[in-house]
Amino acid sequence: MSQIPADLLEFMETLRPPKGVNPADMLQRNDALMNGNPPSVGAVHDGVLLREVAGWRLTADISVPHGNGPHPVLVYFHGGGWTMGSPKTHLRVGREFAAAGYLTINIDYRRAPKHRFPAAFDDCFFATQWAVENAAKYGGDAKRLAVGGDSAGGNLAGAVLAESAQKGGPKINVGVLIYGVFDYHDTMKALGTPKPESQFYLPVEQYETLRGDHRVSPLNSCAKFPPCYVGVGTKDPIYAESIKIAAALKAAGIDHDLHVIEGAPHGFFQLTPLPAYAEGYKRAIAFMDRYLKK
Which residues form the Alpha/beta hydrolase fold-3 domain (predicted)? Predict the structure, then answer.
C-alpha cells in the first residue's frame, strides 16, 4: 500500500478524514491514482441529459464497450457519502465495467446537504427506468440489466433494487453491491454520528420516521432482490454492513457472492495499486457474466 498516500489510506480505513483535510480536496489530489490511464472502451458519451429537476441537470456519463452490441447494461451509482463524488471521480470504475462488455451508465445524482433524501434515491430510480427506455440508443440491451454502486452508491443501488421489487419493475437481473450502507441508522451509529443533526443525507426532522424505510435501509427488504455480488474488505469500517446483507440474502435463498478480501480498505475498487482492485473487478464481472452473458 506504499503507493497510496497515507492520508488517503487513513481515510479509507476509517471514513474519517485526517484533521484539517477536506475529503473532496484529497480525492481530487489523488485523481490520477484513481482514474488515470483507464482501459480502452468503444465510445464515451459524457453528460447525457436524463432530466432537469429542482434546478439540477440529472446527467450520466455513458461508456460503451468495444464490439458490436447489444451489450448488457449496468446502471452505476458512485460513492461519496451522499455529499460528494460524481461520475468523474468514478470515471475509471465506469470504464472498467465497459471494458468488460457492459454498457455502463454512470449517474450524476443530486447530492446532500443541498438536496437531501429522497432526491438522490429518486434520481437513481428514475435513471434506472430511463436506462430501460433508452439504453438501446447506445447499443445496450436493457433486458440484461444490472444496477450497482459503491459505498453511498451501494446504498442507493440496494434501495433501487428494493423499490423495483416492491413496485414490480423495472426488471433488474443482477445487483452489484460494493461496500455499501444497507442499514443507514446502524451505520451512522457505528461511525459515531448517531444524532440526526450530525449527518447530512436525511432531513433532520424525518430521521426517526425514516428508520427502516427500504429507500434508506434496504437490508430488511431484500427478500426479492435479484442475484447479487457483495464485495468488501476486512479493513473497511463498514465491513459489517456487507456481511449483514449477505446473510439476509442467504436467508432469503437468493444467489449471491459475498466476496471478502483480507486486508482491503474501503474504496478498493478505486485504489489501483492494490491487488484487491483487480481481484474485485474480476470477481464482480464473473458473477455478472453468469446472469447477463449466457
Answer: 74-269
CA 248 – CA 7 distance, rounded (Å)? 34
Q: Indicate which residue of 78, 90, 185, 266 is catalytic.
A: 266
Chain CA centroid to CA 146, Å? 11
242 catalytic, yes or no?
Answer: no
Task: State whether the Cα torsion 267-235-243-203 is positive or negative.
Answer: negative
Please confirm, yes or no, whether 71 is among the known catalytic residues: no
Residue 15: helix, strand or coil by DSSP? Answer: coil
200-243 residue pLDDT tens: 999 999 999 999 999 999 999 999 999 999 999 999 999 999 99
Task: Give phi and psi for 164, each to the nearest 5.
Answer: -60, -40
Candidates 213, 236, 242, 259; catalytic one: 236
Per DSSP, 198 falls in state: G
Burial 21-46 (b: 16+ CB within 10 A, else e): eebeebbeebeebbbeebeebbeeee
Q: Quick one: CA dihedral 167, 209, 175, 98, positive or negative?
A: positive
- Annotated active-site residue 266? The verdict is yes
Domains recognised in the chain with CATH numbers: 39-292 (3.40.50.1820)
